[in-house]
Amino acid sequence: MPLHVTDYTWSQTDSAVNVSVPLKGAAPGRVDVMSTDQYLKVHFPPYLFEAFWFEDIDDERSSAKIGDGVAVFSLMKRTNRWWQHLMMVNDDKESKRRIREKALEKHLQKVSAEAKIKAVRKQAESKYALETMMELEDQERDRIQKMKDSEREKVSVELVAWQQNHPTPLRDNTKTPEHGSAKSGRNQPVHRETKRRSQEPPPPRAAGNIQITFTPRVFPTALRESQASEEEEWLRKQAEARRVVRADLEELEDLTQEERNPDWLKDKGDRCFVSGDYMGALNAYNLAIRLNKKMAALYANRAACHLKLRNLHKAIEDSSQALDLLTPAVEANASARVRAIVRRGSAFCQLQLYAEGLQDYEAALKIQPENKQLQEDTQRIRDMVQGCPPD
Q1: Is the pLDDT of residue 189 over 60?
Q2: Which of 258, 256, 283 shows the shortest CA–CA distance to 269?
Q3: What is the CATH classification number for the domain harbouring 377?
Q4: Using CA atoms, how far apart are residues 205 and 185, in angstroms rounded to an integer?
């Protein structure tokens, strides 16, 4: 069960309400906020703050500041009048459930709209960057052409000046050796033959074959259908993760050569997990992560151990860390992302945070929509969020 925050403070004016929620040491990046006109949720595991407002607020004109160990919300009232209470006085669970579901639906719509706006903005920025680059290339091409024209003109002027200073002597073409006058017609056939030969087309070129080879691609999808840049970035990060090994452990001297290899430790942890030795697997993954903090599989597998050992908050943290490392999202890491998302969603559900768990399961279902087991689990959690009894 989450720990509900009760030591919040609030104040109000005729037009606004100010609420301060202590974060109890949580980093700003770990704070999840969901806000609507009737509802506010601030979640920073294992703590949770929920507020069902006494009257509606204007969420579009409201603001939030998270930092320095506190989250401060400045909420604008829709009606300028004094509130008798900050939250609803009745404890109607059915009304709160409907408000929570409506808030979740509105939040998902807002996130989707923001994602679309972000995609459009990114496309516009890419187009602007491309146009700017093309303009710069045109300017550079014009500059080079002007330099060429200037150099050509300079050389032409120097050549004319040199010719004026070094006149070429005229040849006496009135006579040719051994043939008398140039006006006699003896050499005319020779000139006509030379001219005729110069006008003949050159012989055809010999036929041949040109061998073309292509660099094999690591990913099987066609280039026009794939995310080439994301795939290359993922390969680069995978190679970097294999190279990064920390060597500043004090007990490194006591480890064997195999125990200094994160891949060997991962395999050992996998074997322990399969055999049911979850603590042994956890210790192997812990040491492997101390040696290499860039391998997403280590965090995802350690999250599975925490689930078995009921360390649910640690399972959420490790799953989130694995998802941070599993970027960019490409086909090669789709299965790994699904496993990490489902493990985090399972931890949320075991903490009875079904709304958060449903978000994760729906995200995993978007990656693998044909997964029957995932469809059944998602529907079961959706029924629990909506108040339907589980099968």
Answers
A1: no
A2: 283
A3: 1.25.40.10
A4: 38
